[in-house]
Design a protein that fits this description.
CATH class of the domain at 9-135: Alpha Beta
Radius of gyration: 16 Å
Shape: globular
Distance between the termini: 27 Å
Number of helices: 5
Low-confidence stretches: 178-186
Order of helices and strands: HEHEHEEEEEEEHH
Mean pLDDT: 91
Structural class: alpha+beta
Largest sheet: 7 strands, mixed
CATH architecture of the domain at 9-135: 2-Layer Sandwich
Length: 186
């Protein structure tokens, strides 16, 4: 059995450098977003969830195509997954930004999710590199109402709650989690 592919901190830093050089602003969401907020990698990741302006999707796809990534799920330009031949994935959450700084993301189910400007104000580290990411509070909201949680998600939320002194809603506490949620953040 082959080992699962892993999006290492160095591979992620390389991708983020590529996006930055192309002038594409991205915010980390999901597992790498949590680890960026914590300033350290706490678990392996097979993918990275990113939020970016929908206007930058064509350039992002072009850059990643040059590295062997192609669309494997979802529907560009809003919500889709790119993967390379090694199995690494970039889960794209493209948003249309309002003057207020809020980003409206059209999810695969056709509903809109709003990343408020405040939610996009997170700062973290990946491999010692400063990165933009969702705030700890935004991560909690995305996980509370976003999708079916796995054990790793409960652990991520516990780590954020401990570090940032956040109160987790009942559905994010392992002992209170009774039923799955929907689909959104990462």
């Amino acid at each position: 059995m082959e080992p699962a592919p892993e999006m290492s901190a160095s591979a992620l830093a390389e991708l983020l450098g590529l996006f930055e050089a192309a002038g594409i602003p991205v915010w980390l969401d999901g597992g790498w977003g949590v680890d960026a907020l914590l300033g350290t990698q706490t678990r392996p990741h097979k993918d990275v969830d990113i939020v970016l302006p929908v206007r930058d999707v064509p350039r992002l796809r072009e850059l990643l195509a040059e590295r062997g990534f192609e669309v494997v799920a979802g529907k560009p330009p809003d919500s889709f997954v790119l993967a390379d031949g090694a199995g690494l994935e970039v889960d794209v959450h493209a948003a249309t930004f309002r003057e207020s700084g809020d980003g409206v993301y059209r999810m695969q189910n056709g509903e809109d999710w709003v990343y408020t400007a405040a939610y996009l104000g997170g700062e973290g580290l990946v491999g010692g590199r400063p990165v933009r990411c969702l705030t700890p509070e935004a991560q909690v909201v995305c996980h509370a109402y976003g999708y079916t949680l796995a054990e790793k998600d409960y652990r991520d939320m516990e780590l954020l709650a401990g570090r940032f002194r956040l109160e987790l809603p009942p559905q994010l506490r392992r002992d209170d989690a009774q039923h799955p949620q929907g689909e959104a953040g990462g």
